[in-house]
Amino acid sequence: MSGSRPYQTTDRNLALELVRVTEAAAVAASRWTGRGQKNEADGAAVEAMRLAFDQVGIDGTVVIGEGEMDEAPMLYIGEKVGAGGPAMDIAVDPLEGTSLTAKNVPNALTVVALAEAGNFLHAPDIYMDKIAVGPGLPEGVVSLDASVGANLRELAKAKKVEVSDLTVCTLERERHEDMIAQAREAGARVALISDGDVAGIIAAAMPDSGVDIFIGSGGAPEGVLAAAALRCTGGQLQARLLFENDEQVARAQTMHAADPRRLLSLTDLAAGDVLFSATGVTGGPLLRGVRRWGDRAITHSIVMRSKSGTVRFIEGHHNFATKTWSPV
């Protein structure tokens, strides 16, 4: 995606095409909202996203997907998608928050990010430690190698506020209990989310979200997707892969040559020019959920481009009677 005018036009067109992809997945998943069947919701989103990609003018390779080829029937790592065009890496989470959708609770999203080939970390489906803050702060203001208290003090100093003014977002997990205790001991508030750390990390980079920092471990694929979003918003993110055994280390080494245990910067995760799109399935602070009635639906999406730093919110009105992708 160089600086020439044809590529700038292609960028803009692709940004809108990505919105159509996440919209399709969100509409399909929304049929299962609140029905207690997370696998069915995920399957519907995967199928719809796969079909929508057939209309996108790229030669895409899924580098962050639903799993390995023998684990996932569609949108698996290494799968080719698109109608032909420039070679692109694709990171997808057809339904970020399957349990959220099944329970009809906030923050379920459908997510796609796109970059030129070779610019996304090929992350195995393991845990990743993450820390993220928003734009306009000194580079390296927080670090995974610093204590929770030290990070909060440095962040408060950079924002010219008290630690008690800060809100830490993290997944509500037993593994985070010590970190949560340290954050509260330092004086910060803690916002716990049940699932969906992509939304939580993006919230840390949005000025009106009420979240100042995200800390905690979650899926490595979600870390790459969140990094793509933060590349567009100007936020900061550090990460480190967390391995449970030597087999996971060996798998990571086959996916990228550098030391798999190293501290990863934002551009280690998502480099080059990046496009990002997400559509809400269930409503939350970032996006409204899908609203359906009869043969129509309304979707709410965010689309971002790192090249321009533009963030757009798009409301889509859909008529299933005329949609070519409408898996209603």
UniProtKB/TrEMBL annotation:
Transcription listed as a keyword: no
GO MF term (any one): fructose 1,6-bisphosphate 1-phosphatase activity
Pfam name, any one: FBPase_glpX
Record flagged with keyword Hydrolase: yes
UniProt keyword annotations, A-Z: Carbohydrate metabolism, Hydrolase, Manganese, Metal-binding
Catalytic activities: beta-D-fructose 1,6-bisphosphate + H2O = beta-D-fructose 6-phosphate + phosphate
Family: Belongs to the FBPase class 2 family.
Record PANTHER family: FRUCTOSE-1,6-BISPHOSPHATASE 1 CLASS 2-RELATED, FRUCTOSE-1,6-BISPHOSPHATASE CLASS 2
Annotated protein name in UniProt: Fructose-1,6-bisphosphatase
Originating species: Rhizosaccharibacter radicis
